Amino acid sequence: MQNKIILASKSKVRKEILDKHNIECDVEPSNVDEEAVKIAMIKDKATPEIISKNLAELKANKISMNKPGKIVLGADSVIDLEGELISKPESRNEAFLILKKLNAKSHNLISSVCISKNGTMMWNYTDKANLTMKKFSDKELKEYLDKISDENLYAYNVYQIESEGRNLFSNISGDEDTIMGLPIKKIKEYLETIR
Hints:
alpha/beta; Maf protein
């Protein structure tokens, strides 16, 4: 395996996970129009899991087409609330409405990863974690959002599981790296096979 891979994502958390596991990478965001893809796929009745998988593959393939011979990692995470796809918020008000929707309910967080080379997928993996949110008043949800910077709010869904967000949940089952957007154990296992 080449020493360096390319991460087709601008997610700081994903980069930090790779760094922590000594996987050298260059960052090259794919700039895929995720919303347009999601809208089209929802019209075709695609499940949140299929949408997540397709977006991860689309991101990896787009960058790897222009990087001959390089290993490119694409990733995508979505929230699946009883079959409804919940995307990252684009405003504080939207973040509040998402939290209200998740309030006192269980949802799945789905993270998909794809490794591509020369514009073709070589490997992909999808994992799910289940999170049950405690019941909060509107005031408590607003107070929680007030603690989160704009940069963090728009970068990683509406909760930061690695910090303040943990307190939102009564139950979390699943891999923490999956929740943070990169199921690193499986990625490392695959990278080992192509050394």
